[in-house]
Structures are given as C-alpha cells and as structure tokens.
Write a structure and sequence with these properties.
Length: 91
C-alpha cells in the first residue's frame, strides 16, 4: 500500500470536513436567532444571526472554490469557468 497517498486523501478529507462543520454551526446559529425571536418579549439576536451568516457563507464559498480549483486542474469544467489566458484578452 502507498502510505503517502492515504495521508493526502486524509488531508483532503479534513479540508472538506472542517468547513462543512463550521457551515453546520452557522446554520444552527441562524436557526437559533430566528426561533428565539419568535418568542414573545424577546429581542432579535442580530449578532447571532450575522455570525451565523458569516460562518455559513465563508465555508460554503471555500468548498465551492476548492471544488472549482480541483475540477479546473482536471479540465472538467465548462469553458466559461476556465481561466482565460492573458494573451487572449489583448485584442
């Protein structure tokens, strides 16, 4: 068995799992802020909502960028998502 390959796959898995866990925690914060505000005599928790939005949007965009970068390296994306060469834009 090739041990470094297993280590690389484990690192790639952790790169995907940690942001996913942060995004799940962000969803929990958003849900808590919305449901807490539904109770009478309770103020809206703007701080919790904004923190939840940041913790959701940041990791989701990181995972999307990671997948796009991975697919660009293997030419699996549509032409509109491919990087343009600087020579092509000089017209």
């Amino acid at each position: 068995m090739n041990t470094p390959l297993i280590g690389q796959k484990l690192i790639a898995l952790m790169i995907m799992v940690i942001p996913a866990a942060l995004a799940m925690y962000g969803i929990k914060l958003i849900r808590d802020a919305l449901f807490y505000s539904a109770t009478p005599d309770a103020d809206f928790l703007w701080g919790k909502l904004l923190l939840g939005l940041v913790l959701f949007a940041g990791p989701v965009s990181f995972i999307g960028g990671f997948i796009l970068h991975h697919d660009r390296k293997r030419n699996r994306v549509q032409p509109r998502f491919m990087k343009r060469d600087p020579e092509d834009d000089e017209d």
